[in-house]
């Protein structure tokens, strides 16, 4: 059975109504609220066809209909129009991110996630960049006290990691500067996999007399880069789901909270490569997320993907508005990262 223009208009009306009310929709409601030029009886017959085709579903015999995952997918792919954000929201996004924090990528992304959560009233989840796949951009050694040296590592993806190294005696400030310069000269643009025995052997020639500190630096460097490769998941707006009446049900709310606090599951949902992705219900291939939609985008440094940022909520979210907000934020975020980290 083909889905004709009239069925599409009725489906569009059902989806719009359900997104904003959360209540199953009947033919009489559609006839009263939407000027479709057909009778309630005609709408009822068309709704029966739409149900047979799998675009809408009926929870109970006497209830109205709600969109199915298939119905939402048709809406997102064919019917949804990306809304133009109000000027004040566009300005808010630009100013909020510009004031984020010294172009440290993890701080900027966390600020972006807080902004997304606030504007969409959904839960925002972020996967930070992998440091293991990053290269050393800069490394600095600073004496803190007579037995402690601070190692500041900056990667080319903008992450800043600090390690405190304990030694018997801290070299002078000038000696630490010399050692910092050597390390920068020999390690710059190398990833952890590229810092091999040959590189270490070459470094040792320039670090004679500082063996204890040098070995501690290498140990801290490996520890930082390797352990930072574990996916860092950050969340904002975890209680926003309670804005939706259907999650007033304690068991359903508990299921949602269990889902978002499962790090492996969230890592799996964030494992996307598209610039923007909309997964609806069972398209997520995760049982616990069958009643959720997940809108995600990859943030980049130029052409290089750094991580993923996503919004999760019920399948009846306002796809048009949420998508437009995501596109605006990710565009600004990518521009800031490019301009800030390539300066």
Describe the main β-sheet briefly: 5 strands, antiparallel
Helix/sheet category: alpha+beta
- Specify the helix fraction band: 40-55%
Number of helices: 12
**CA gyration radius, whole angstroms:** 26 Å
Task: Name the assembly state.
Answer: single chain
What's the total count of β strands? 10
DSSP strand (E) fraction?
15-25%
C-alpha end-to-end distance = 58 Å
Q: What is the spatial order of strands in the main beta sheet? A: 7-3-10-9-8
| CATH architectural grouping of the largest domain | 2-Layer Sandwich
Shape: elongated
Descriptive notes:
The chain is α+β, with helices and mostly antiparallel strands. The chain folds into three domains: 5-79, Arc Repressor Mutant, subunit A, CATH 1.10.10.10; 87-128 and 231-341, Beta-Lactamase (2-Layer Sandwich), CATH 3.30.450.40; 136-227, 2-Layer Sandwich (Enolase-like, domain 1), CATH 3.30.390.60. Helix 2 (27-33) crosses helix 3 (40-52). The protein has twelve helices and ten strands. It starts with a helix and ends with a helix. The chain has helices at residues 5-21, 27-33, 40-52, 69-79, 87-98, 105-120, 173-187, 197-206, 211-227, 250-260, 263-269, 319-341, and strands at 56-58, 65-67, 123-127, 136-145, 148-155, 160-166, 233-236, 276-280, 292-301, 304-314. Helices cover 46% and strands 19% of the residues. The longest helix has 23 residues, at 319-341. Strands 7-3-10-9-8 form a five-stranded antiparallel β-sheet, sandwiched between helices. It has a three-stranded antiparallel β-sheet with strand order 4-5-6.
């Amino acid at each position: 059975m083909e889905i004709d223009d009239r069925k599409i208009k009725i489906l569009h009306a059902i989806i719009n109504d359900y997104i904003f009310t959360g209540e199953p929709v009947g033919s009489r409601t559609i006839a009263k609220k939407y000027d479709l030029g057909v009778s309630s009886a005609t709408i009822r017959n068309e709704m029966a066809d739409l149900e047979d085709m799998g675009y809408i579903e009926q929870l109970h015999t006497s209830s109205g209909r709600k969109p199915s995952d298939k119905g939402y997918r048709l809406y997102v792919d064919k019917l949804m129009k990306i809304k133009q954000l109000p000027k004040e929201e566009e300005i808010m996004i630009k100013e909020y991110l510009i004031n984020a924090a010294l172009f440290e990528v993890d701080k900027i992304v966390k600020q972006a996630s807080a902004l997304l959560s606030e504007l969409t009233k959904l839960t925002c989840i972020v996967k930070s960049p992998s440091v293991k796949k990053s290269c050393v951009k800069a490394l600095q050694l600073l004496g803190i006290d007579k037995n402690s040296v601070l190692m500041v590592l900056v990667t080319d993806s903008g992450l800043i990691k600090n390690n405190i190294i304990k030694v018997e005696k801290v070299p002078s400030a000038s000696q630490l500067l010399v050692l910092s310069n050597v390390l920068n000269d020999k390690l710059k643009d190398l990833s952890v996999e590229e810092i091999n025995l040959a590189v270490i052997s070459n470094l040792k020639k320039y670090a004679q007399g500082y063996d204890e500190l040098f070995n501690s630096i290498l140990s801290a460097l490996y520890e930082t880069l390797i352990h930072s490769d574990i996916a860092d998941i950050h969340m904002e707006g975890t209680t926003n789901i309670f804005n939706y009446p259907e999650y007033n049900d304690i068991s359903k709310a508990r299921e949602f909270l269990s889902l978002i606090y499962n790090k492996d599951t969230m890592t799996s949902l964030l494992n996307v490569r598209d610039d923007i992705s909309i997964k609806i219900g069972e398209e997520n291939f995760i049982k616990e997320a069958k009643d959720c939609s997940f809108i995600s985008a990859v943030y980049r440094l130029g052409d290089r993907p750094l991580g993923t940022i996503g919004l999760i909520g019920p399948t009846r979210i306002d796809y048009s508005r949420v998508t437009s907000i995501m596109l605006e934020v990710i565009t600004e975020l990518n521009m800031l990262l490019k301009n800030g980290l390539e300066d």
